[in-house]
Amino acid sequence: MQTEFSLAQLADPDIAESEKILRSCVHCGFCTATCPTYVLLGDELDSPRGRIYLIKNMLEKGGKVAPETVKHIDRCLSCLSCLTTCPSGVNYMHLVDHGRRHIEAHYRRPLRERLMRRVLARVLTSPARLRAALHRSAKTARAIPSWQPCGRCSGCRRSPCRC
Ligand code: SF4
Ligand code: SF4
Questions:
Q1: Radius of gyration, CA atoms only, the chain
Q2: Who is most buried in 76, 107, 110, 145, counting CB within 10 A?
Q3: Ranges of the chain with pLDDT below 70
Q4: Atom number in ligand 1 closest to CA 32
Q5: Atom nearest to 31 CA in ligand 2
Q6: Helix-strand-coil percent breakdown of the chain, rounded to 5?
Q7: 152 — phi, psi (to 5°)?
Q8: Nearest to residue 52, comparing CAs of 8, 125, 113, 2?
Q9: Is the CB of 29 within 6 Å of ligand 1?
Q10: How many of the other CB atoms lie within 10 Å of CB of 18?
């Protein structure tokens, strides 16, 4: 893949590394067959090859990032299944990590998303907090009778059950 980074951009070691990776992609598309988001959504921009293009354009342009680009890169599961089918050995892992760092530095997410990400980061990185959150959710679910079948029927969801 051809790239158009300036010499000033290439002075940044992260950009230089990503440029090398971008150049190793030959657009063959073999990776699309093993990408779960592409298989599910059928959108080229939700495939590894599509994301590689998005990251290339985003890094070349620098600065602010378009919400559309963020959406497709956010949808990547980082499962790295695409690495197993790439004949050119494209290091997608480094590329997507670099893309994500660029997004965090140059894109302001909507407030709801920021709060949600902050909560998830706090809860998912601490076993104690995760246990407490699961315990609290289970307690809340148990407290809502219509969510649980009464045991007499297969779950009519009427409260009280009249089956
Ligand atoms: S399989 Fe590898 S070389 Fe081919 S498009 Fe995907 S990332 Fe690029
Ligand atoms: S890491 Fe997984 S979800 Fe992301 S592009 Fe590769 S195969 Fe698709």
A1: 22
A2: 76
A3: 145-150, 155, 157, 159-160, 162
A4: 6
A5: 7
A6: 65, 0, 35
A7: -85, -25
A8: 2
A9: yes
A10: 25
The CATH H-level superfamily of 7-106 is: Alpha-helical ferredoxin (1.10.1060.10)
d(C-alpha 54, C-alpha 49), whole Å: 9
What spacing in Å lies between the alpha carbon of 27 and ligand 1's midpoint? Answer: 5
Q: Where are the domains positioned within the chain?
A: 7-106
Q: Which atom of ligand 1 is nearest to the CA of 52?
A: 7
Q: How many residues does the chain have?
A: 163
Instruction: Of 101, 10, 108, 105, give the one whose Cα is nearest residue 60.
Output: 10
Helix (H) or strand (E) holding 131: helix 127-143
Report the distance separating Cα 14 and Cα 56, nearest Å.
13
In tens, the pLDDT along 128-139 reads: 999 999 999 998
